[in-house]
Design brief:
Chain lengths: 338, 338, 338, 338
C-alpha cells in the first residue's frame, strides 16, 4: 500500500518534533513537507532529528502541498494563525488534523469570549469534529477537519465521562485541579519558563480563567446530554512532560470504589489507550506513550476523586493526533503508537 | 544575656539539619547536644555542616541533657518514638518543641485511628499546645510542650482561617489539594523517592487517608468554633522543597476577591511570616524562608480558591519551630529567621 | 519468519524495562520469559508496562527456558551473579547477551583487580565477544556470548577510536571526564540516590577507581594495537538519563578541527548509530535513542577535545544489546531501534 | 556604629537579588538605592522580596547616589555597561565592587581579545584590585575599585593555587573541566535556558573559547610568578545553582594524596570560606553559602585531580562581593555570611 503523504504546518515547536518522531516510525505515513517561517533544515531547528530526517522547512504554500500529493496536514500552528491556513488546504481536498484550539469550540461566541478574538472560519467550524477518539470515534473516521483536543481537557473529559454519562455525580461545581510539565507552555522563551525561575518551583496560573475550561465543559455536556460546569485550575510542575489531574466530584447516589472501577473498566473496554489502573496513576508511567491512565477513588466524606495522568506532548497532542490519523486513513488505531 | 542552651533529639534527618543551620545564626541559642543512634560527628551525617559545627552525636540521655543545662529540646524523632523520650525531658524541667506528630491531636482516639498505634502519654498530651503561632500565639509563650505543626496543615489552616473564622464558607466538603517537594518524605531511602523514580514524575499518594487530615480539621474547628471537615489529597512534586496548596471552598454568601483579600490582610496584620500576596504565590518565593504566602481568588461559578505556598522544611517544620522557640524564650518572633 | 524467542534474566531493573519496551516494538522478537527472584507480574515491578506485557516473572530455570524454545537470553543480572547463570544457558545452546560486566575483561586477573572477586568461568570468558558493534562488528554476528559494553566506556571508546587507530594522539594520560544521569546507578535505593540528596547536586565519585577504566583501556588498546591508558573520572548529574564525556588528548602531530571531523565522518561511515555532529552534542538529543553523538574540537594550546553524548540506558545498555541481537540473528542492525 | 550606606547598580538579575538578601541580614549595611532601567518596585522584579524590602528601582544618577550618602556601590551590570557607570561613582568618592568582568583583566588588549570590544577606562583599570580575598586579601582592604572575580575562575584559582605556588605541577596543559547550574547564565530568557531545553540535558558550551580563561590564567600566573595556561571547558548542569570543577594536572615531582591534602590545609589555614574537605566535595554542600570546598587526589598514572565546588551565585558572585565589602569597611570577613 502506498504511504499516506503528510504535511506538517509549523515545524518549530514541541508538538511538531514529537509528531515527526512518531511519523518516522509509522509504516503508513510519509512526511513530504514541513512548513515554517524559519527557513532552516528541520535538524537545525530540532538537533535530535540530526541524521533522521533530511528535510528543509518551507514557507506555507497550499498549492505546492497539493501538488506534492499531501493528503493530510497536521496543523502545529498557534491558534488564530491556524484558521488562516487551514481553509486553504480544505479547499484543495487536503484533510486537516489541527492541533491548535481554533476548531475545538463549536460556538464561535464562546471562542471569542475565551480567546479574545473573533472566529472567522464559521464554514469549517460547522463540520469540524472534536478529535477525542474514545468519545467521538466514528465521527473522526470520515472527518475532513479534526480539531485535536487540548492536553488538559483529555484528562478531565476521559476522567469524568463514565460518571457524567451515567449521571452519578452533580454536574456543577466539579473541581479539576491539574498539573502540567513545562513543555505544555510551548517553546518560546519567556521569564516564567526560564530554567532558574520554574525549576524547583510549583505554582498555579490562570486560576479560573484558563482557555481549556469551555472545551472541557463542551465535551462533558455532550456526554451528559445536559450542561456540565467545572472549576479548573492549572499548575506548572518542574518537569519536562506529563499532566496529572485530580478531580473532585460529589456523587448523587451511594457509590463504591469497586463499583466505579468496574464501571470505568467497562466504559473503556476496547479502547487501547485508556488504562484503568490498579493502584495510583503517575505521569511517569505514561511518559513517551499515548496512554491516558485513570483511577477512581471514593474518599471519607463521600466525595469521588478521579486521578488521571498522561504525557502532555504525546497523548495530549501529537500521539492522539496520530491516533486520529489512523482512524481517518484506515489504519489500526495503535499503528505507530505502540 | 546568656544564650539559651538547646538540645536536638534525632540529628540525622532533614528537619534537624535545617534547624541546626537556623540556630547557628540565632544570637540567643547555643546547641549543646545532638542525639542520634548513629554515633557520628554531625558533619559526617550532614556534610554541609563541615567546619560549621564541631559536635559529635550522642545517645539520648535525659540526665546528661539536664546536667548540660539544656533548657529546651527540639524533637526531630519519628512519631511513636517521640512520646517515649519527651516525658523524660519534661520531668527534668526541660521544655520541648516536638516536630513529630505525637502531641498534635488532642484526642488520643483520633491519634490511634490515623496513626494505627495507641498513645501512651496522655498526661503530657493534655497540656501540649499546638505550635501554630498565628493561631495559638499566646498559649505557646508559656507552654512546656509545643506540638510543632505539620507541613501540609499549616497551608490549609492559615489558608482557610480567615474564611472559617467569619463563617464565610461551608464547613464541610472543603477540598485541599496539596503538592509537596520530596524532602517532605524524610531522608530514609525508599524506591518511591529514588531519584529516577520520582524525578520527572508527578503523582498523588495517600488519597483520602493522609494523617495530616485530622490535624487540619482540629485546628480549623478551633478557629470556627464548630466542626470543619476537609477532603485532603497530597501529591509529590519533583523538587527538593516547597508545599503548594490549592483550596476550594463554597461561599455561604456573596463575596468578592477584593473584599476577601482585605479580610486576609487584616486577619494577618502584625503576623510577620504570613504574606498576603498580590499576584499568585509560588513555592520558590518562599524557599529558605519562614514565610507562608497566601492569595484568595473568587472564580467563575462562585467558588473561592485559596492558594498557599511555603518551604516545607523551614516554615513547615524547623523555621516555625524556631518561631515557637522565640516566643517561649522571650525573643522577637523573627530572631534568626529574617 | 518465526519470531526469535527471547528470555530476560533479572527483570526488576532499569535496563530490563528498557529492553522490554524495545523488544515489544521489535518485529522479530518475542519475549517468552522474564526471570526474577521477585515472584511478581512484570507490570507490578514496572507500572509503565501495565497493559502492555502480560507476563509473570519466574525463578531462573535453564531447563525451562530451553524447553520454551528460547534462543537467546539477555542478562540483566548484577556482575558476579551473571557468571553463575550464563554457563547453564550456553550449555543448553542458548546464546547470551550479557549486560553485566562479567565477560567484558578478557584477562581474569584484571577482573579480579577491579571487581574484587575472582572470575570463575574462564571457559566462556575465552570466547566471549565484546559487544561494541562499531568496533567488533563481525565477531558479534556469530558469537555465542556477547559481553554488552558498559555505558561510560562506549563514549570513551567511540570518542577516541579514530584518533588512536591513526595514532594521532599520545596514548597515555588521556583524560576522560564523564557525567552520568542517575539511572546509571541502578534501581536499588541508597542515600546517595535519594531524591533530595542528588537533586540540585553535582559531584564526582570513584575518582581514579571506577571499574569501567580497564574496559576503556582494553578496547582502545585493541584499536591502537598497543597499550592505551586513561584517567577516568565519573560524575553524577541530576537528571534521569544521559552520559556526556569530555575527553582531552594531546596530538602527536599538527591537526585541524576540520581534518579531524572528516576523519571521524569517514571512520563512522555506514555506522547508523554514530552521529558525527555539527555543533555541540547534548545528551537530550540522544534521549530515548540508540545514537551516540560525537564532535571533535582543537582548542587553544593545541589539545584535542572530544565531546560524546548518549542515552545511558539505551545506547549505553539495552539499545546496543538489541543492536547486537540484530547482528546475531540476521536482522538489519536498526530493527526496533529507529 | 552607623551602617554603611550601599547602592546596587542593576537590580533585576540573580546576583542582585542574592546580594540584597545577604545585605538585609548584614548588621553593618543599609541599602539606600537600587538602580535599574525597569522603573519597578524591587518586589515586583523579585517576588521573593515581597514584604522584605520596600524600595523602588530608580534610574542611575551618580549625583543622587552621592547625595544619599552611598559609600559603596555593588555593580550588577553587564560587562561593557559597567565601565560606563563606574567611573562616575569613583569620581564622586564612592567605592565600587564590580561584579561584571570589566575590571578583572589587567591588560586591556586581553580584554579586547576575549570580550570583542575595546576597554575605555584605562585609568581605573590601572588601580582595580582583583577581589579574590584568599589571594589578594590585603590589597582589597584599601581598594577604591574591586573587580569581583568570576564564578568559574574562583574554583580553578583556589583549586590550583597551592600547587602552582609551590611549583608542584606543570604550568601548561592544565585541564579545568567545569560544570555550572543554569543561574550562571543570568536571567534573560533564551532558548538554551528555556526549561524544556536544558532540563534533563547535559552539554558543553564555549569549548576552548570561554571568557573566564584569561582570568584564570592571570591569577594563577600571579600566584606562580610565571605564566600558567589552562584548557577550560564549561558545561551546563540541569540545576539552579552550583559550580563543580574537576581539574587535571601533571606533577613535576613525586606527590602523595596525604601530602597534598596537608599542603592545602596549611595554605588555606585562617581562610574561613575555603574548606579542604575529607571525602568528595559536592555542590549541594555549599548551596546558599560562601564556602568553596576542595579536595585533592592523586590517581593511577600519577595525575593530580583537584575537585572544587561552590554556589555560583553566593561564593561565585554576591557572597564573595560581601566578603570584599567586609574587608573594605573593616568588618569581620564573615559578617552576614555565616
Amino acid at each position: 500500500m502506498d504511504k499516506v503523504k503528510v504535511a506538517i504546518l509549523g515545524g518549530s515547536g514541541y508538538t511538531a518534533v514529537e509528531l515527526i518522531k512518531i511519523l518516522l516510525r509509522h509504516p503508513g505515513a510519509e512526511i513530504v513537507a514541513i512548513t515554517s517561517r524559519q527557513d532552516e533544515h528541520i535538524a537545525d531547528l530540532h538537533p535530535s532529528l540530526f541524521g533522521r530526517l533530511d528535510l528543509r522547512c518551507e514557507l506555507f504554500d497550499p498549492d505546492k502541498l497539493q501538488a506534492m500529493g499531501a493528503r493530510v496536514a497536521f496543523g502545529c500552528l498557534p491558534h488564530g494563525t491556524s484558521m488562516e491556513s487551514i481553509p486553504l488546504l480544505l479547499d484543495r481536498g487536503i484533510r486537516v488534523i489541527d492541533l491548535s484550539a481554533d476548531y475545538r469550540l463549536r460556538d464561535s461566541r464562546v471562542y471569542q469570549e475565551w480567546y479574545k478574538e473573533s472566529h472567522h472560519d464559521a464554514a469549517n467550524l460547522a463540520h469540524a469534529v472534536y478529535g477525542l477518539p474514545e468519545i467521538y470515534g466514528d465521527r473522526i473516521d470520515s472527518a475532513k477537519l479534526v480539531a485535536n483536543p487540548g492536553c488538559y481537557p483529555q484528562t478531565a473529559i476521559l476522567g469524568l465521562a463514565p460518571l457524567v454519562a451515567n449521571e452519578l455525580i452533580e454536574l456543577t461545581g466539579i473541581v479539576v485541579d491539574s498539573k502540567s510539565g513545562v513543555s505544555g507552555a510551548g517553546r518560546t522563551p519567556k521569564l516564567t519558563y526560564h530554567y532558574p525561575e520554574c525549576n524547583e518551583n510549583f505554582a498555579a496560573y490562570a486560576v479560573g480563567t484558563h482557555r481549556h475550561t469551555p472545551e472541557i465543559e463542551q465535551a462533558l455536556s455532550d456526554v451528559a446530554g445536559k450542561p456540565v460546569s467545572v472549576v479548573f485550575t492549572p499548575h506548572l510542575v518542574p518537569m519536562d512532560r506529563g499532566i496529572f489531574s485530580t478531580i473532585y466530584a460529589t456523587p448523587t447516589q451511594p457509590v463504591t470504589e469497586a463499583g466505579l472501577t468496574d464501571l470505568y473498566r467497562s466504559y473503556y473496554a476496547g479502547k487501547p489507550f485508556v488504562r484503568v489502573r490498579t493502584g495510583f496513576p503517575a505521569t511517569k508511567d505514561t511518559t513517551g506513550t499515548n496512554f491516558l491512565d485513570l483511577a477512581v477513588k471514593v474518599v471519607r466524606g463521600g466525595k469521588v476523586v478521579v486521578l488521571a495522568a498522561e504525557d502532555n506532548l504525546i497523548r495530549g497532542a501529537s500521539g492522539v493526533a496520530v491516533q486520529n490519523f489512523n482512524r481517518m486513513f484506515g489504519f489500526d488505531e495503535r499503528t505507530g503508537l505502540l
